[in-house]
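Troubleshooting log. The previous structure file for this entry was overwritten by mistake, so regenerating from the original sequence record. Sequence copied from the archived sheet and checked twice against the printout by T.R.
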Amino acid sequence: MATNPPSDIYTFEEYLAIEEESGVKHEYIDGEIFAMTGGTKRHAMIPVNSTRVISNQIIEQDKDNCDVASGDLRVKVAEKKYVYPDFLVVCGNDEFEGDNETTLTNPTLVCEVISESSKDYDTGIKSEWYRNLESLKHYLIIYQSRVYVQLFTRHTTQDAWIFREFNTLSDVVPLTYINVDLPLSEIYRGIEFESDEHISKQS
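Regenerated output below.
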């Protein structure tokens, strides 16, 4: 989750220097920087659960051309727009901006684990930025406050996206482009929800 930026406008080089000096991840949007704040235990567990399943299935398929990366890898989503998904998958040759392997430009799948405070951003303008990437085939949105997952999948023959929702632990998310089935029971493994909390979020 990104906090409100200062009023200053930074060059991209200044942004990179701030990241290197502070050790804190920031999103860079049109010259403004947004510090990425720490998350909840749920927010920390969900990417680990999900990437474990995805990685295992990729290994079982012996798909050496696909790699899973954590949220430490920056993604360029548009000119002067750089963000950090919670995790991603890239298939084929990695394409990076610049000489360092720190800014990916061609993810195949990106995932955001969202809270109530980040929901509007991650399902709104950030979703548009991701889906404008030519390389992207899946945009996965996982809610941490309840059992609920959204998936955008690029249509195979049309310039359009197919949207699906999943809200029970018996559901399985079909990540068809990487040939992975991601069960919600694994995404939310070890996470307990209060019954009244689950109901309140559904309403």
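The helical segments are 12-22, 41-60, 119-123, 125-131, 184-187, 195-202. Archived copy saved in two places this time.
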